[in-house]
Design brief:
CATH topology of the domain at 50-136: Jelly Rolls
Largest sheet: 4 strands, antiparallel
Shape: globular
Strand order of the largest sheet: 1-8-3-6
CATH architecture of the domain at 50-136: Sandwich
Oligomer: single chain
Helix content: 10-25%
Distance between the termini: 81 Å
Number of strands: 9
Order of helices and strands: HEEEEEEEEE
Low-confidence stretches: none
CATH class of the domain at 50-136: Mainly Beta
CATH superfamily of the domain at 50-136: Jelly Rolls
Radius of gyration: 23 Å
């Protein structure tokens, strides 16, 4: 009986060890940065009353967003499709599904769908409460 109890305890502890390791969440860093995609550092960002907004944006095939700027930090994640972002200096960056972009702050730009399916973006905005998410030119 002692051996059976000891064997049961060993089995239970082994089972817990194996089952706990198989249920670990997978984590991958998608983006970690101190600057926007044009290498402008995030300087002098002070937020007294922070507000976080998350949007899902869909850009149809061949469609472009209006020229606009952001006066707050935002990160776009391409959930689906191909997105090209063009700065006011005609610098371009193209992103594909699963990639992310630290958007320009205070600089005019626009995004356009350059793929063959709708672009789905998840955009995270972080700024002072009440700051508009974007300002059109």
């Amino acid at each position: 009986m002692k051996n059976l109890l000891r064997l049961s305890v060993i089995f239970f502890v082994t089972f817990l060890s194996i089952s706990n390791s198989s249920y670990c969440a997978e984590k991958n860093v998608i983006l970690k940065t101190t600057s926007t995609w044009d290498n402008a550092e995030y300087k002098h960002i002070k937020i007294k009353k922070p507000e976080v907004t998350v949007l899902k944006i869909v850009i149809n095939i061949g469609e472009s967003l209006p020229v606009h700027k952001h006066d707050l930090v935002n990160i776009a994640y391409v959930k689906k499709g191909t997105l090209t972002v063009v700065s006011d200096k005609n610098e371009e960056i193209t992103l594909h599904e699963g990639e992310s972009l630290p958007e320009l702050v205070g600089k005019y730009h626009y995004g356009k769908n350059t793929g063959n399916e709708p672009v789905e973006l998840i955009v995270f905005y972080i700024g002072e409460k009440g700051t508009p998410l974007s300002v059109n030119k």
